[in-house]
Every structure is written in C-alpha cells, then in structure tokens.
Amino acid sequence: MAGPAQVNVRPTMTPGASIVAPSAAKPVVEVKDLSLWYDDKQALRSISMAVPQHQITALIGPSGCGKSTLLRCLNRLNDLIDGVRIEGTIRIAGVDIYDPALDVTELRKRVGMVFQKSNPFPKSIYENAAFGPRILGVRGKAELDAIVERSLRDAALWDEVSDRLHESALSLSGGQQQRLCIARAIAVEPEVLLMDEPCSALDPAATARIEDLMTGLKTHYTIVIVTHNMQQAARVSDQTGFLLLGELIEFGPTQTLFTTPRDQRTEDYITGRFG
Amino acid sequence: MIHLPAWRGRHVGSDGRHLRQTFDHALQQVEDDLLRMGTLAGQLLTRAVDALARSDAAAAASVIEDDDKVDRLHLDIERRIMSLLATQQPMAGDLRTLASVLAASIDLERFADHAEGIADATVRLNSQRLVKPVVEIPYMAQIVQGMLHDVLHASARRDPVLAEALAAKDDTVDALRVQTLRVLLTYMAENPRTITQALELILVTQHLERAGDLVTNIAERVIYMVTGEMRELNIEAVGGLR
C-alpha cells in the first residue's frame, strides 16, 4: 500500500510522527464543490465549506436535505453504498480524503463518528473503550487502562462507571451508552468527531449532558454535528450550515445565522415557516 | 392610531404555505399593542405640555392618572413577550422583532413617565402665572411628538431609513433645551423670586430631552429589527451650557 496520507496526529498519540498541524486560522475540513449522486438522484449540489479547528460546526436542514449524506462523506461512509458517485474534493488537515492512495481505515481512525442510536458493542464497558486502541495494536494493560480512563473521563462517564468497568455496556442507560460511544470514538484520539443526531433518542437531561460534553470536547477535537433540533444547534455550535435540497444555502457563525440570516430560505426554515 | 400595513407576507413560507399562524397572530398582537402604547404615550406628552402652557393643574392631574394605562400595557406586553420567548423559541427576524418590541416597550413606558414628570411640575406650579410665555417647551414637545410618530410608522412599515432620519431631529430638541436654559438663567439672575418656577421649567425641558433620547433608542431598535444591525444613532452631546 502506498503510504497512507497522514492526517493530523496529536503528539501524545504518536511521538515522533510527522505532525502537520493546521494553523489556528486554517480550517481542518475543507469541502470544495462537492456533489454526490445516489444513482441518478443528486443528493448534494456543489457544496463548499471550511470547518474550523476546535470548533463545533452544526449542519441543519429539513429531512432529506442531504445533511447526513454530507456528514458521511467526511469519513467516506458513503463508499459502502452501491451506486454512489462523488465529485469535488474534501481535504482534512490538508489531505485529500478521496485520494485513491489513502488508507480508509486510517481515515476513520482520524475521523470518528457517533450515530443517532447508541450502538455499544455487547461487551464490557472497558472493552468498548479499549476496542479502538486494541485494533490499533495497543497491548499493554497499563497503557490500555490509561486510555480507557482518559476516554471515559473525557466523555464525562468515568465517575458513573469506574467501579463497574467490567459490567456489560448494555446495562447502561441510553444517555450513558451514548457517552460510552463517544468515549469509544475518542479513545483513538481522532482529529475530527462526526455526530449524526447524537441526542435524538435521549431525554432532556441526557441531552444536556451530551451538549455540555461536546463543549468540553472541542478543546481537543473538531466536531461536526448533524441535528434536526435547531435549538441544539444554536446552543452548542460555533458555526452552522443550513442545507436545503442538497444545497448549502448558508454557512457562517451560529449567532449570526440564528439572529440575522442572509438568505430568506434560511429565515423561513429557522423561524419554522417551512420544513 | 397607526395600523400595521399589509407587509405580513413575510409570514408565508417560501413554499407559499401559511405556517405558525398562532405564533404569527400573537406576534402581530404585541406589535399592535406597542403601537397602541406609543400612541397613548404621545398623547400623554401632548396633554402634559398643554396643561403646562395653560397652567391647568387639573388637566395635569389627569395625565398623571392616565400614566397607569401605559404602565399596564407595558407589563402586559412584557408578560406576553416572555411567554413567547419561553414557549416558541423564536429565531432570526422573529427573535429580533420580539427583542426590539420588548426594548421599545420599556422605552415607551419611560417616555410616558417623562410626560408624567412634566405633569407633576405643572401640579407643583399650582396654576400660578408663568414668568414668561412658554414658547420653546411646546415647540420641543412638538418635535418629540413628531419623532415618536415617525418611529411608530418606521416600526410598522419596517422602514429603517425613516428611523435613521428622525434621529437628526433630536439635535434640535437638545439645542432648544440649552436655549431655554440660557433664557431661564437670565430670569433667575434678574429676579431670584422666579427661581422656583424657573427650576421647574428647566426640569420640564430635561424631561423633553430625555423623551427625545428614548425615541432615538426606539429608532435604533427598529433598525436592528429590520436589518440586524446594531447602531448608535446619537452619540449624546454633553448637556448644559457651552
């Protein structure tokens, strides 16, 4: 295999590796003229956007607008669907992620994902958090223990599970399971964390915990979240993109988009006058 | 009374469907009540200055009494806006409208308090003959009243140009206050027995100047409501004699 294109690596993970850290001003994810078709049906239309590092970017829009499709493009999950054709480029930390030479497994290590419905493995809490690092070859117990604890702490779950790490992950509540999925995703220290409606199955208290967690996580990770909940986008995100019929209608600072949107279609959607 | 024109087309979605009609109706009602409150506050100012010019303490007393109506309207508008904010999670233009109406309602309530302040002065003067004919004060009130009329129209018509233009008139109000102050100082210097009355009249000009400032604030809210732009229309000049 040609050497996989190196996406940004945190120094604590692989000391000595070539570190290509984007500058503070440089976006981590750069999407340019991205179009996507499911067979003949065009789902994304020439989308361009730049996702800033260590910020939360929300994608909103009515059902079927293409927001989840766009999110899945960022770690090439759409590759798994038959009949998908993609044009345009996506660069993450400067690397073209659709470069045929790129190792997709390496990409998905660097671009983690949390799904709408929590999906812990039917294993212990510990094994869920240790799963990614084990796949990547971490074997030492002390090292794994440290990664598990750090991940669970970062996911604001450690205090609730530290005395029962070897119980089944399925014994946790829905909100705890979702935080465990976040812990599992960040255990491999991804550069970007994608979240597809991560709170839609959670009650308000569990949702608030995840939202608080996201705000804490952005210190280390760049987060892109798809949500149909506009109030959530307004609460947690720094940047918001509004999609409609596969087109990115407006993209900019969340505060601006929710108070003074430039496009009438954005205004109509966020004021609840169509959707 | 100013009526809202038919610009309500904005409440139709891009696809032509009418959505959120309950919310739209509630929004329309608070805006209507704000205009009602503004009209009432303007009438109070006119009546207060008329009562002063005619040295009519009884008419001034009725102004003081009617200020309660403005206060009640303000509280009612505020309660309804808080309820809409809590239950409807307004965004974008709706959010700017509610925030602006709330701020304007507070400004109008204070505007009416200044009308009441002028009426209070008239009551304290107790129908005594004034040391000089009241000329500048009704003129100041007329300008402020015109500004209020313009700002209510600007709000109803979503007209930021009109809102911006009216703020320039506030400079005239400020200049008239200074001019009146100079004249009254000469009266007080010539005859110390006029001091009590002159101080009341100076207080009245201050009320009018503040009322003009509040209208300018409302004009800023109208500009924000329509354009999303927060602007300071009048950087307040240093008051007093120069």
Write the layout of secondary structure elements.
The complex is a heterodimer of chains A (275) and B (242).
Chain A: E1 27-38, E2 41-52, E3 56-60, H1 67-73, E4 84-92, E5 95-96, H2 104-110, E6 111-114, H3 125-135, H4 141-154, H5 158-161, H6 174-186, E7 192-196, H7 204-217, E8 222-226, H8 230-236, E9 239-244, E10 247-253, H9 254-259, H10 264-270
Parallel strand pairs in A: 3-8, 3-9, 6-7, 7-8
Antiparallel strand pairs in A: 1-2, 1-4, 4-5, 9-10
Helix pairs in contact in A: 3-4, 3-6, 4-6, 6-7
Chain B: H1 21-53, H2 57-88, H3 92-125, H4 136-157, H5 160-166, H6 169-190, H7 195-227
Helix pairs in contact in B: 1-2, 1-3, 1-4, 2-3, 3-7, 4-5, 4-6, 4-7, 5-7, 6-7
Give the CATH level 1 class of chain B: Mainly Alpha
Oligomer: heterodimer
Portion in strands of chain A:
15-25%
**Percent helix range of chain A:** 25-40%
CATH topology of one domain in chain A: Rossmann fold
List unreliable stretches of 5+ residues of chain B.
4-17, 237-242
Q: Count the strands of chain A?
A: 10
What is the name of the CATH topology of chain B? Answer: Methane Monooxygenase Hydroxylase, Chain G, domain 1
Order of helices and strands of chain A: EEEHEEHEHHHHEHEHEEHH
Going by CATH, the homologous superfamily of chain B would be: Phosphate transport system protein phou homolog 2, domain 2
- What is the first-to-last residue Cα distance of chain B? 40 Å
Helix and strand run of chain B: HHHHHHH
What is the radius of gyration of chain B computed over CA atoms, rounded to a whole number of angstroms? 20 Å
Report on this model:
The complex is a heterodimer of chains A (275) and B (242). By secondary structure, chain A is α/β, with parallel strands linked by helices. Chain A has a domain at 27-119 and 191-270: P-loop containing nucleotide triphosphate hydrolases (Rossmann fold, 3-Layer(aba) Sandwich). Chain A contains 10 helices and 10 strands. The longest helix of chain A has 14 residues, at 141-154. In chain B, helix 4 (136-157) runs parallel beside helix 7 (195-227) and helix 5 packs antiparallel against helix 7. The longest helix of chain B has 34 residues, at 92-125. Chain B starts with 20 loop residues before the first helix and ends in a 15-residue tail after the last helix. Chain B is elongated. Chain B has 7 helices and no strands. The chains are: A alpha/beta (275), B mainly alpha (242). Chains A and B meet through helix 8 and helix 10 of A and helix 3 of B.
